[in-house]
Amino acid sequence: MDNLEEREYLYWLSHIPFLGAVKIKKLYDYMGSYKKIYNIERKELESCGLLKESEILFLEERKSYLDSVRRQLEQLEKKGIRFIAHFDHNYPRRLLSVYGYPMGLFVNGQLPGEEKPAAAIIGARNCTNYGRQMAQSLARELSAAGISIISGLAYGIDGAGHEGALEAGQETYGVLGCGINVCYPKENYGLFSQMKNRGGIITEFMPDEAPKPQNFPMRNRIISGLSDAILVIEAREKSGSLITANLGLEQGKEIFALPGRVSDPLSAGCNRLISEGAGVLLSPETVLEYFKLQNGKILRVHEKNKNGLAKKEKMVYSCLDLQPKNLEEIVSCSGLSVSECMSVLLELELKGSIIQTSHQYYGKKQ
Length: 366
Known about the structure:
- The chain is 45% helix and 15% strand.
- It has helices at 3-13, 21-31, 34-39, 42-48, 53-62, 66-78, 129-144, 157-167, 189-197, 215-226, 240-250, 265-275, 284-290, 311-317, 327-334, 338-351; strands spanning 81-85, 104-109, 118-122, 148-151, 172-175, 199-203, 229-232, 254-257, 279-280, 293-294, 297-298, 325-326, 354-358, 361-364.
- The termini are far apart.
């Protein structure tokens, strides 16, 4: 199958408003190609049970838009914007393990290097001067040491992270919650313009799409998915940054949080992450040690050692605190089966990360 032709059919399908990444993948898995989805007979589409009657009618009607969509794609490419499909050789491998990964990405500039470690620097839009300075400084030091800096090009901490990387003369990557040709917020237009040539702008949303609130949690799974470690600089108790950190935790990524005063609302989210097992972000060295740097050259992403926690262990550990909880509570919180949960608890106990205070009651070690 011709990749160019398949990409055109995927781009056409991506215009259908009720089709998200998960549903498009189900259709693709069922049919085996996007061209076949376009050419499928209505009766077969009805029999597969993946779409409602009204959705099938809408899809049929939109088949007449194919030529117009092809022209749009050509125009984007003339402007230097690439549409990269999940089957393309340059689609980010890190994303393929993320649940509901985008079936196509719009990219203006480059994508983060596959072999180069990457860290997301995220945090509050209405950050303090201290938070902004820390984000900028960390990004500057880490990018100079060979780590790609990824963020969401938002106001505040995100923008400061991108600025720090650019100050170090390195590339940085912004993941948007809107169309590839939309700069949001407008205050970051300077960054937006620079990053096309010094890094890249990335989104799964269609060109011209406005920055809708529901787009940002979706955007966050790409930020965490492209990163090996997530650095939370300032975050309120309930914030988008914590969504990104939790997505990263589910994806098995390392989380670091900048500690702050307990009375400061902008440190509440970070302090909670630390209480749940995130690394304490005291300096760039904390992260560099994780990535095992030597002489400014990355050797490898740090393997989990006896002090590190694997994905399921992190999930269970984050459900615990100093006040012991019984097995039933931990199973409910972690979403694992009883046998999986007991196995992980035993591993954590053997590592000395937790203690069993009484029969089937477990707590974090002080």
